[in-house]
Amino acid sequence: MEVASALRQLIQIPQNVAILSHRNPDGDAIGSSLALRHYLEQYGHTVHVIFPSEYPEEFEALPGAEEILIWDIHTEESKQVLQRKNLLFFLDFNAYNRIDKLGDFVKPLNATRVMIDHHLYPDDIADFLFSDPSYSSTCEMVYRFIEAMDDKIKINPTVGKCIYTGIVTDTGSFRHATNASIFRITADLIERGMNDTSVQDMIFNSQKEKNLRLLGHCLANRMEYWPEFKTALIWLSKKDYETFQIQRGDTEGIVNYLLSIKDVRIAAFIHNQPTVVKLSLRSKGNIDVQEMCHTHFNGGGHRNASGAYSHDSLKATIDKFKAILPLYTEQILKS
Protein backbone atom coordinates (compact mmCIF):
# COMPACT_ATOMS: atom_id res chain seq x y z
CA MET A 1 0.00 0.00 0.00
CA GLU A 2 2.90 2.37 0.71
CA VAL A 3 4.22 1.85 -2.83
CA ALA A 4 0.80 2.50 -4.32
CA SER A 5 0.40 5.65 -2.22
CA ALA A 6 3.80 7.00 -3.27
CA LEU A 7 3.12 6.32 -6.94
CA ARG A 8 -0.36 7.82 -6.68
CA GLN A 9 1.22 11.06 -5.52
CA LEU A 10 3.94 10.85 -8.17
CA ILE A 11 1.66 10.44 -11.19
CA GLN A 12 -0.75 13.17 -10.16
CA ILE A 13 1.91 15.77 -10.97
CA PRO A 14 2.66 16.02 -14.73
CA GLN A 15 5.99 14.38 -15.52
CA ASN A 16 8.12 13.77 -18.60
CA VAL A 17 7.60 10.04 -19.04
CA ALA A 18 9.09 7.30 -21.22
CA ILE A 19 7.57 3.83 -21.44
CA LEU A 20 9.96 1.09 -22.57
CA SER A 21 9.38 -2.53 -23.50
CA HIS A 22 11.38 -5.44 -24.83
CA ARG A 23 12.95 -6.28 -28.18
CA ASN A 24 10.62 -8.00 -30.66
CA PRO A 25 7.57 -6.56 -28.91
CA ASP A 26 4.46 -8.74 -28.89
CA GLY A 27 0.83 -7.90 -28.25
CA ASP A 28 1.31 -7.70 -24.50
CA ALA A 29 4.31 -5.37 -24.77
CA ILE A 30 2.54 -3.08 -27.22
CA GLY A 31 -0.85 -3.22 -25.53
CA SER A 32 0.46 -2.56 -22.03
CA SER A 33 2.74 0.28 -23.17
CA LEU A 34 -0.01 2.08 -25.09
CA ALA A 35 -2.60 1.46 -22.39
CA LEU A 36 -0.32 3.04 -19.78
CA ARG A 37 0.46 5.93 -22.13
CA HIS A 38 -3.20 6.77 -22.70
CA TYR A 39 -3.88 6.48 -18.97
CA LEU A 40 -0.99 8.76 -17.94
CA GLU A 41 -1.81 11.37 -20.57
CA GLN A 42 -5.12 11.93 -18.78
CA TYR A 43 -3.02 13.44 -15.97
CA GLY A 44 -1.20 15.78 -18.36
CA HIS A 45 2.04 13.80 -18.56
CA THR A 46 4.22 14.08 -21.66
CA VAL A 47 4.63 10.44 -22.70
CA HIS A 48 6.75 8.65 -25.31
CA VAL A 49 6.76 4.90 -25.94
CA ILE A 50 10.10 3.47 -27.09
CA PHE A 51 10.85 -0.08 -28.25
CA PRO A 52 14.26 -1.52 -29.21
CA SER A 53 12.89 -3.00 -32.46
CA GLU A 54 9.83 -3.01 -34.71
CA TYR A 55 6.51 -4.62 -33.84
CA PRO A 56 4.18 -6.84 -35.96
CA GLU A 57 1.99 -5.03 -38.50
CA GLU A 58 -1.31 -6.28 -37.06
CA PHE A 59 -0.83 -3.97 -34.07
CA GLU A 60 -0.51 -0.83 -36.18
CA ALA A 61 -4.25 -0.28 -35.68
CA LEU A 62 -3.83 0.30 -31.94
CA PRO A 63 -4.33 3.98 -31.01
CA GLY A 64 -0.94 5.67 -30.73
CA ALA A 65 1.05 2.86 -32.34
CA GLU A 66 2.15 5.11 -35.20
CA GLU A 67 3.93 7.40 -32.71
CA ILE A 68 6.07 4.68 -31.09
CA LEU A 69 9.80 5.35 -31.41
CA ILE A 70 11.91 2.39 -32.56
CA TRP A 71 15.47 2.55 -31.22
CA ASP A 72 16.90 0.63 -34.19
CA ILE A 73 15.36 3.18 -36.58
CA HIS A 74 15.03 6.41 -34.57
CA THR A 75 18.20 6.10 -32.47
CA GLU A 76 19.17 9.76 -32.23
CA GLU A 77 15.61 10.96 -31.70
CA SER A 78 15.15 8.33 -28.99
CA LYS A 79 18.32 9.50 -27.22
CA GLN A 80 17.18 13.13 -27.29
CA VAL A 81 13.75 12.18 -25.96
CA LEU A 82 15.15 9.99 -23.17
CA GLN A 83 17.57 12.66 -21.97
CA ARG A 84 14.56 14.86 -21.12
CA LYS A 85 12.71 12.19 -19.14
CA ASN A 86 12.45 12.11 -15.37
CA LEU A 87 10.14 9.08 -15.04
CA LEU A 88 10.64 5.74 -16.77
CA PHE A 89 8.24 2.80 -16.89
CA PHE A 90 9.65 -0.66 -17.72
CA LEU A 91 6.85 -2.86 -19.05
CA ASP A 92 6.91 -6.60 -19.84
CA PHE A 93 10.65 -7.02 -19.15
CA ASN A 94 12.72 -7.24 -15.99
CA ALA A 95 16.38 -6.99 -17.03
CA TYR A 96 18.31 -4.44 -19.08
CA ASN A 97 19.57 -7.09 -21.49
CA ARG A 98 15.99 -7.52 -22.76
CA ILE A 99 16.18 -4.04 -24.30
CA ASP A 100 19.73 -4.42 -25.65
CA LYS A 101 21.52 -1.16 -26.59
CA LEU A 102 18.54 0.86 -25.39
CA GLY A 103 19.28 -0.53 -21.93
CA ASP A 104 22.91 0.61 -22.08
CA PHE A 105 21.73 4.15 -22.78
CA VAL A 106 19.04 4.13 -20.10
CA LYS A 107 21.16 2.77 -17.23
CA PRO A 108 22.98 6.02 -16.33
CA LEU A 109 19.98 8.32 -16.78
CA ASN A 110 18.84 10.27 -13.74
CA ALA A 111 15.19 9.26 -13.62
CA THR A 112 12.75 7.45 -11.35
CA ARG A 113 12.05 3.93 -12.59
CA VAL A 114 8.86 1.84 -12.27
CA MET A 115 8.69 -1.80 -13.39
CA ILE A 116 5.40 -3.55 -14.24
CA ASP A 117 6.11 -7.12 -15.33
CA HIS A 118 5.01 -10.75 -14.96
CA HIS A 119 8.22 -12.65 -15.75
CA LEU A 120 10.28 -14.69 -13.30
CA TYR A 121 13.44 -13.51 -11.52
CA PRO A 122 13.41 -9.71 -11.95
CA ASP A 123 16.72 -7.83 -11.79
CA ASP A 124 17.07 -4.92 -9.39
CA ILE A 125 16.56 -2.17 -11.98
CA ALA A 126 13.58 -0.17 -10.67
CA ASP A 127 12.72 2.09 -7.75
CA PHE A 128 9.13 0.83 -7.70
CA LEU A 129 8.43 -2.81 -8.50
CA PHE A 130 5.17 -4.42 -9.57
CA SER A 131 6.31 -7.94 -10.43
CA ASP A 132 4.18 -11.07 -10.18
CA PRO A 133 4.51 -14.13 -12.48
CA SER A 134 1.06 -15.35 -11.46
CA TYR A 135 -0.57 -12.75 -13.70
CA SER A 136 -1.55 -13.74 -17.23
CA SER A 137 -0.01 -10.69 -18.85
CA THR A 138 1.53 -7.31 -18.23
CA CYS A 139 -1.71 -5.85 -19.58
CA GLU A 140 -3.59 -7.49 -16.73
CA MET A 141 -1.06 -5.91 -14.37
CA VAL A 142 -1.57 -2.47 -15.95
CA TYR A 143 -5.29 -2.86 -15.26
CA ARG A 144 -4.48 -3.74 -11.63
CA PHE A 145 -2.01 -0.86 -11.45
CA ILE A 146 -4.69 1.62 -12.56
CA GLU A 147 -7.06 0.03 -10.07
CA ALA A 148 -4.48 0.45 -7.30
CA MET A 149 -4.28 4.14 -8.23
CA ASP A 150 -8.07 4.36 -7.60
CA ASP A 151 -8.44 5.36 -11.25
CA LYS A 152 -10.65 2.77 -12.93
CA ILE A 153 -12.80 5.64 -14.15
CA LYS A 154 -9.90 6.50 -16.48
CA ILE A 155 -10.11 3.10 -18.24
CA ASN A 156 -11.89 4.44 -21.30
CA PRO A 157 -12.45 2.45 -24.54
CA THR A 158 -8.98 3.41 -25.83
CA VAL A 159 -7.19 2.20 -22.69
CA GLY A 160 -9.44 -0.86 -22.63
CA LYS A 161 -8.66 -1.81 -26.23
CA CYS A 162 -4.94 -1.78 -25.49
CA ILE A 163 -5.31 -3.78 -22.27
CA TYR A 164 -7.52 -6.37 -23.95
CA THR A 165 -4.96 -6.81 -26.76
CA GLY A 166 -2.31 -8.04 -24.35
CA ILE A 167 -4.69 -10.26 -22.43
CA VAL A 168 -5.91 -11.93 -25.64
CA THR A 169 -2.43 -12.52 -27.06
CA ASP A 170 -0.72 -13.68 -23.86
CA THR A 171 -3.52 -16.10 -22.97
CA GLY A 172 -3.77 -17.47 -26.52
CA SER A 173 -7.36 -16.23 -26.82
CA PHE A 174 -8.17 -17.43 -23.30
CA ARG A 175 -6.77 -20.93 -23.82
CA HIS A 176 -4.15 -20.78 -21.04
CA ALA A 177 -3.02 -18.72 -18.02
CA THR A 178 -6.64 -17.87 -17.28
CA ASN A 179 -8.64 -17.56 -14.10
CA ALA A 180 -11.92 -16.04 -12.99
CA SER A 181 -10.26 -12.65 -12.53
CA ILE A 182 -9.27 -12.48 -16.22
CA PHE A 183 -12.87 -12.86 -17.32
CA ARG A 184 -14.08 -10.29 -14.78
CA ILE A 185 -11.52 -7.81 -16.13
CA THR A 186 -12.61 -8.53 -19.70
CA ALA A 187 -16.26 -8.05 -18.76
CA ASP A 188 -15.40 -4.76 -17.08
CA LEU A 189 -13.52 -3.54 -20.19
CA ILE A 190 -16.53 -4.38 -22.39
CA GLU A 191 -18.89 -2.60 -20.00
CA ARG A 192 -16.62 0.44 -20.25
CA GLY A 193 -17.05 0.52 -24.03
CA MET A 194 -14.22 -1.66 -25.34
CA ASN A 195 -15.16 -3.44 -28.58
CA ASP A 196 -13.74 -6.94 -28.10
CA THR A 197 -14.75 -8.12 -31.59
CA SER A 198 -12.73 -5.38 -33.29
CA VAL A 199 -9.62 -6.34 -31.29
CA GLN A 200 -9.97 -10.02 -32.21
CA ASP A 201 -10.45 -9.00 -35.84
CA MET A 202 -7.36 -6.78 -35.74
CA ILE A 203 -5.18 -9.56 -34.34
CA PHE A 204 -6.44 -12.65 -36.16
CA ASN A 205 -8.07 -11.44 -39.40
CA SER A 206 -5.40 -9.17 -40.81
CA GLN A 207 -2.99 -11.72 -42.26
CA LYS A 208 -1.32 -11.35 -45.64
CA GLU A 209 -1.50 -14.09 -48.27
CA LYS A 210 2.17 -14.95 -47.75
CA ASN A 211 1.53 -15.64 -44.06
CA LEU A 212 -0.96 -18.39 -44.88
CA ARG A 213 1.41 -19.86 -47.47
CA LEU A 214 4.20 -19.78 -44.89
CA LEU A 215 2.00 -21.55 -42.36
CA GLY A 216 1.14 -24.22 -44.96
CA HIS A 217 4.86 -24.70 -45.67
CA CYS A 218 5.62 -25.03 -41.95
CA LEU A 219 2.94 -27.66 -41.36
CA ALA A 220 3.58 -29.62 -44.56
CA ASN A 221 7.38 -29.46 -44.83
CA ARG A 222 8.96 -28.26 -41.57
CA MET A 223 7.08 -30.15 -38.88
CA GLU A 224 8.48 -33.08 -36.90
CA TYR A 225 6.61 -35.10 -34.30
CA TRP A 226 8.04 -37.43 -31.67
CA PRO A 227 5.09 -39.26 -30.04
CA GLU A 228 7.34 -40.99 -27.49
CA PHE A 229 8.11 -37.53 -26.04
CA LYS A 230 4.73 -35.97 -26.83
CA THR A 231 6.70 -33.23 -28.56
CA ALA A 232 6.39 -31.51 -31.93
CA LEU A 233 8.76 -29.14 -33.70
CA ILE A 234 8.63 -26.64 -36.56
CA TRP A 235 11.89 -25.28 -37.90
CA LEU A 236 12.78 -22.65 -40.48
CA SER A 237 16.08 -22.04 -42.25
CA LYS A 238 17.62 -18.89 -43.65
CA LYS A 239 16.56 -20.07 -47.09
CA ASP A 240 12.95 -20.26 -45.88
CA TYR A 241 13.23 -16.66 -44.71
CA GLU A 242 14.39 -15.62 -48.16
CA THR A 243 11.83 -17.69 -50.06
CA PHE A 244 8.85 -16.37 -48.10
CA GLN A 245 10.33 -12.90 -47.49
CA ILE A 246 9.69 -13.35 -43.80
CA GLN A 247 9.69 -10.15 -41.79
CA ARG A 248 9.41 -9.40 -38.09
CA GLY A 249 6.12 -10.72 -36.74
CA ASP A 250 5.34 -13.06 -39.67
CA THR A 251 6.08 -16.16 -37.59
CA GLU A 252 4.17 -15.00 -34.50
CA GLY A 253 1.85 -17.75 -33.23
CA ILE A 254 3.06 -20.53 -35.54
CA VAL A 255 4.33 -22.60 -32.61
CA ASN A 256 0.83 -22.67 -31.09
CA TYR A 257 -0.53 -24.76 -33.97
CA LEU A 258 1.55 -27.68 -32.70
CA LEU A 259 -0.34 -27.66 -29.41
CA SER A 260 -3.53 -28.46 -31.32
CA ILE A 261 -2.20 -32.00 -31.87
CA LYS A 262 -4.07 -34.17 -29.38
CA ASP A 263 -1.15 -35.76 -27.54
CA VAL A 264 1.44 -32.99 -27.87
CA ARG A 265 2.59 -31.54 -24.55
CA ILE A 266 5.68 -29.62 -25.75
CA ALA A 267 5.77 -27.47 -28.89
CA ALA A 268 8.98 -25.98 -30.26
CA PHE A 269 9.65 -23.44 -32.98
CA ILE A 270 13.34 -23.20 -33.89
CA HIS A 271 14.37 -20.79 -36.60
CA ASN A 272 17.49 -19.29 -38.08
CA GLN A 273 17.85 -15.56 -37.43
CA PRO A 274 20.65 -13.50 -39.08
CA THR A 275 23.09 -13.90 -36.16
CA VAL A 276 21.48 -16.47 -33.82
CA VAL A 277 19.10 -19.41 -33.79
CA LYS A 278 15.94 -18.57 -31.85
CA LEU A 279 13.87 -21.05 -29.87
CA SER A 280 10.25 -20.56 -28.81
CA LEU A 281 8.84 -23.28 -26.55
CA ARG A 282 5.27 -23.82 -25.40
CA SER A 283 3.81 -26.52 -23.16
CA LYS A 284 0.62 -27.84 -21.64
CA GLY A 285 -0.01 -28.63 -18.00
CA ASN A 286 2.87 -28.64 -15.52
CA ILE A 287 5.73 -29.09 -18.00
CA ASP A 288 8.20 -26.32 -17.23
CA VAL A 289 9.68 -25.09 -20.51
CA GLN A 290 11.06 -22.06 -18.66
CA GLU A 291 13.40 -24.38 -16.78
CA MET A 292 14.28 -26.13 -20.02
CA CYS A 293 15.20 -22.84 -21.71
CA HIS A 294 17.08 -21.54 -18.68
CA THR A 295 19.09 -24.69 -18.03
CA HIS A 296 20.03 -25.67 -21.57
CA PHE A 297 19.81 -22.50 -23.69
CA ASN A 298 20.33 -19.55 -21.30
CA GLY A 299 16.78 -18.36 -21.93
CA GLY A 300 13.64 -17.99 -19.85
CA GLY A 301 10.12 -16.66 -19.63
CA HIS A 302 7.11 -18.48 -18.18
CA ARG A 303 6.41 -22.07 -17.17
CA ASN A 304 4.30 -22.73 -20.28
CA ALA A 305 5.82 -20.20 -22.69
CA SER A 306 9.52 -19.43 -22.92
CA GLY A 307 12.21 -18.49 -25.38
CA ALA A 308 15.95 -18.65 -25.86
CA TYR A 309 18.80 -18.12 -28.31
CA SER A 310 21.58 -20.37 -29.52
CA HIS A 311 24.84 -19.45 -31.21
CA ASP A 312 25.15 -22.98 -32.63
CA SER A 313 23.97 -23.86 -36.12
CA LEU A 314 20.30 -24.57 -36.80
CA LYS A 315 20.99 -28.32 -37.08
CA ALA A 316 23.11 -28.38 -33.91
CA THR A 317 20.42 -26.51 -31.98
CA ILE A 318 17.69 -28.90 -33.14
CA ASP A 319 19.89 -31.89 -32.29
CA LYS A 320 20.52 -30.50 -28.81
CA PHE A 321 16.81 -29.93 -28.28
CA LYS A 322 16.08 -33.52 -29.28
CA ALA A 323 18.86 -34.79 -27.04
CA ILE A 324 17.49 -33.15 -23.87
CA LEU A 325 13.94 -34.48 -24.25
CA PRO A 326 14.71 -37.83 -22.53
CA LEU A 327 15.64 -35.80 -19.42
CA TYR A 328 12.02 -34.69 -19.19
CA THR A 329 10.33 -38.01 -19.99
CA GLU A 330 8.88 -38.51 -16.53
CA GLN A 331 7.53 -34.96 -16.40
CA ILE A 332 6.07 -35.28 -19.92
CA LEU A 333 4.37 -38.62 -19.29
CA LYS A 334 2.81 -37.35 -16.04
CA SER A 335 1.31 -34.29 -17.71
Please tell me about this protein's structure.
- The structure is a single chain.
- The protein is α/β, with parallel strands linked by helices and 335 residues long.
- It folds into two domains: 2-204, inorganic pyrophosphatase (n-terminal core); 209-334, Diaminopimelate Epimerase, Chain A, domain 1 (Roll).
- The chain is built from 13 helices and twelve strands.
- A six-stranded parallel β-sheet has the order 3-2-1-4-5-6, with helices on both faces. Strands 7-8-9-10-12-11 form a six-stranded mixed β-sheet.
- The longest helix is centred in the N-terminal third of the chain and has 15 residues, at 27-41.
- The radius of gyration is 20 Å and the shape is globular.
Overview features:
335 residues; alpha/beta; Diaminopimelate Epimerase, Chain A, domain 1; six-stranded mixed β-sheet; 13 helices; 39% helix; globular
CATH superfamily of the largest domain: inorganic pyrophosphatase (n-terminal core)
What's the helical proportion of residues?
25-40%
Please report which band the strand proportion falls in: under 5%, 5-15%, 15-25%, 25-35%, 35-45% or over 45%.
15-25%
Provide the gyration radius in Å: 20 Å
Return residue spans where pLDDT drops below 50 for at least 5 consecutive residues. none
Number of helices: 13
What is the correct CATH architecture of the largest domain?
Answer: Alpha-Beta Complex
CATH topology of the largest domain, by name, is inorganic pyrophosphatase (n-terminal core)
> Roughly how many Å apart are the termini?
39 Å
Q: In this structure, how is the largest beta sheet organized?
A: 6 strands, parallel
Strand order of the largest sheet: 3-2-1-4-5-6
Total number of beta strands? 12
Task: Domain count, please report it.
Answer: 2
- CATH C-level class of the largest domain is Alpha Beta
Overall pLDDT confidence: 95
Shape: globular
Order of SSEs: HEHEEHEHEEHHHHHEEHEEHEEHH
- Overall SS class: alpha/beta
